[in-house]
Amino acid sequence: MSAFLHLPVLSQEAPEALVRSPDGLYVDGTFGRGGHSRLILKRLSEKGRLIAFDRDPQAVKAAAEIRDPRFQIIHAPFSSMKASLSAIGIDAVDGVFLDIGVSSPQIDDPERGFSFRFDGPLDMRMDTSSGETAAEWLMRAGMDEIARVIADYGEERFARRIAGAIVAQRKIAPLATTGALARLVEGAVPKNRRDSAQHPATRTFQAIRIQINHELDELREALDAAASLLRPEGRLAVISFHSLEDRIVKRFFDRARHPEHAIDPRLPVPAGFNDEPWFREVERILPSKREAEENPRARSSVLRCGTRTARSWEPEETR
Ligand SMILES: C[S@@+](CC[C@H](N)C(=O)[O-])C[C@H]1O[C@@H](n2cnc3c(N)ncnc32)[C@H](O)[C@@H]1O
């Protein structure tokens, strides 16, 4: 695949799940190279509008190719969508779409430092204009923190060994490249315990990327922002690619559809408890067999979507 191409996954299912009112105002929180944005625009009428977000300056630059008066791009993290929309006078929308994770152009460009397949600077920031690079974090973080990140976000059994190897190495010289990190991880994972289906550094790279980009907190905050922005009958559609993300989306929709599940079944229901759902028509959609065969990225994708009800949104912490 070309370094500049990103094949949208669930390209039929996702826009269909999102757009219910062609005259409406929609948000694509993850523009990437605009594969989904273009498909969403096709479903909108002349009155419809699409506002896209991406925190990657290269994605924002690519959005200039869409010359359509109904479209606008904002360079910001999707967690800030509520404040960013409010700044342009928008406080309610008809649909929010997220296709989370990294794009093919990010993974395929060695300069971005996301992949152990190509040697490049150890960066991994989606927003190259701010924040700490992976190399800087690996120099600064304590061994326990590095081990926790690799264990929690990479679900890696050998997290402590890998963290130990990183800390030992950085005393000699900083880990500056993806190649150096990949070789170090490979050396730290015992040969006879390796997963033959993937490179030994796969999980560690995933973990560090999630940490550097605060991906799980971004997702939690974006779901919350979307729920408070959506009008009744508005749609939320989220594509995720691994179980850590999908668990967050699943939990979000479970609570939103069944507020009573948050109550311990052994305890009496509190007086005045409101069990009205915040979302209905919650569905899980997987790619077709054909798409999974044609686009390897689609294999692990899961689309979860739902329809907002009229109940005003209450974020989990404040309940
Ligand atoms: C999987 S790609 C989206 C591809 C897009 N749907 C397409 O068809 O071209 C994910 C994109 O979301 C962006 N992204 C990821 N997390 C983000 C966040 N928290 N805020 C804003 N953009 C984010 C990434 O920079 C990347 O460009």
UniProtKB/TrEMBL annotation:
Domain of life: Bacteria
Family to which the UniProt record says this protein belongs: Belongs to the methyltransferase superfamily. RsmH family.
Organism: Sutterella seckii
NCBIfam families per UniProt: 16S rRNA (cytosine(1402)-N(4))-methyltransferase RsmH
Binding site for S-adenosyl-L-methionine: G34, G35, H36, D54, F78, D99, Q106
Region of interest: Disordered: 289-319
Keyword Cytoplasm: yes
InterPro entries found in the cross-reference section: RsmH, SAM-dep_MeTrfase_MraW_recog, SAM-dependent_MTases_sf
GO biological process, alphabetically ordered: rRNA base methylation
Function according to Swiss-Prot or TrEMBL: Specifically methylates the N4 position of cytidine in position 1402 (C1402) of 16S rRNA.
Gene3D superfamilies: Putative methyltransferase TM0872, insert domain, Vaccinia Virus protein VP39
Catalytic activity from the UniProt record: cytidine(1402) in 16S rRNA + S-adenosyl-L-methionine = N(4)-methylcytidine(1402) in 16S rRNA + S-adenosyl-L-homocysteine + H(+)
GO cellular component entries: cytoplasm
Pfam family, any one: Methyltransf_5
Cellular localisation: Cytoplasm
Name recorded for this polypeptide: Ribosomal RNA small subunit methyltransferase H
Gene: rsmH
Enzyme class name: transferase
GO MF annotation, one: rRNA (cytosine-N4-)-methyltransferase activity
EC number: 2.1.1.199
Keywords for the protein's UniProt record, in alphabetical order: Cytoplasm, Methyltransferase, rRNA processing, S-adenosyl-L-methionine, Transferase
